[in-house]
């Protein structure tokens, strides 16, 4: 277990969440995603660290391995709000927010490389995890097949942030139109590179690289997290 993962585990325990699944439920994220961060299987970035830090009452810089302003176990002081006059009017009914839902896409076509049709048909809607709650175009896809096992399993849900810049080593969903006027095919893979001539993706099972002419590439979007929703 690396230092970041160990700090995350200790923060969760000090926040009195006995099990990782309890913390995941409180955070509103998929349990397998949180466990992968806590056991060091997957890394987490600063945006995710801030979400964990708010819930566990620690400094996100400390979670990322830095020197904290507020160390673990010490409450972060919350300023007392300024007293104001109570409003003399209000809404007739209480509005109860239920969070943001995002569409889930994915229609398996049985491709050897785990591709599936991306025809705009929404399978169902799912609650957006906190890391995507402010992303207006966020969506999710269902993994088809075991071409990316053990990273992703058949039927697992990947949550996608289409606004985030993709870098080498990121996991992505690439939408490809192999034939003019043909259907869009979506591939959940590991990003290698994308330039003016080609898009290169890595597949795990069987191990190989997939290469697509740049002219066939419709989009390449970042997978923020995944799990069995």
Describe the protein's architecture and organization.
Residues 21-63 form the HTH cro/C1-type domain. GO terms for molecular function: DNA binding. Keywords: DNA-binding, Transcription, Transcription regulation. By secondary structure, this protein is of the alpha+beta class. The protein has two domains: 3-63, 434 Repressor (Amino-terminal Domain), CATH 1.10.260; 101-227, Ribbon (Umud Fragment, subunit A). Helices cover 19% and strands 28% of the residues. Strands 1, 2, 3, 4, 5, 6, 7, 8, 9, 10 and 11 form an eleven-stranded mixed sheet that branches. 31% of the residues are buried. Residues 69-79 and 92-97 have low confidence and may be disordered.
How many domains? 2
Which ranges are low-confidence, i.e. pLDDT below 50, for 5 or more consecutive residues? 69-79, 92-97
Rounded Rg: 21 Å
Q: In CATH's first tier, which class of the largest domain applies? A: Mainly Beta
CATH topology of the largest domain: Umud Fragment, subunit A
The coarse overall form would be globular
Can you say what the CATH homologous superfamily of the largest domain is? Umud Fragment, subunit A
Structural class computed from helices and strand pairing:
alpha+beta
Organism: Sinorhizobium glycinis
GO molecular function: DNA binding
Domain HTH cro/C1-type: 21-63
Protein name: Repressor
């Amino acid at each position: 277990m690396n230092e970041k993962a160990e700090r995350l585990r200790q923060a969760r325990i000090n926040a009195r969440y006995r099990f990782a699944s309890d913390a995941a439920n409180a955070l509103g994220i998929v349990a397998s995603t949180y466990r992968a961060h806590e056991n060091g299987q997957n890394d987490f970035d600063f945006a995710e660290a801030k979400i964990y830090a708010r819930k566990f009452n620690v400094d996100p810089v400390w979670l990322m391995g830095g020197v904290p302003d507020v160390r673990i176990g010490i409450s972060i002081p919350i300023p007392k709000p300024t007293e104001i006059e109570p409003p003399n009017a209000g809404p007739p009914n209480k509005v109860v927010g239920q969070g943001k839902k995002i569409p889930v896409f994915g229609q398996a076509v049985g491709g050897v490389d785990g591709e599936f049709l991306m025809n705009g048909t929404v399978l169902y809607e799912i609650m957006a995890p906190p890391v995507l709650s402010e992303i207006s175009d966020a969506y999710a896809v269902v993994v088809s097949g075991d071409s990316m096992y053990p990273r992703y399993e058949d039927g697992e849900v990947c949550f996608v942030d289409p606004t985030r810049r993709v870098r080498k080593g990121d996991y992505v969903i690439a939408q490809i139109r192999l034939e003019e006027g043909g259907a869009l095919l979506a591939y959940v893979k590991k990003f290698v590179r994308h330039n003016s001539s080609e898009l290169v993706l890595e597949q795990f099972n069987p191990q190989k690289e997939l290469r697509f002419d740049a002219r066939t590439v419709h989009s390449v979007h970042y997978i923020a997290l995944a799990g069995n929703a």
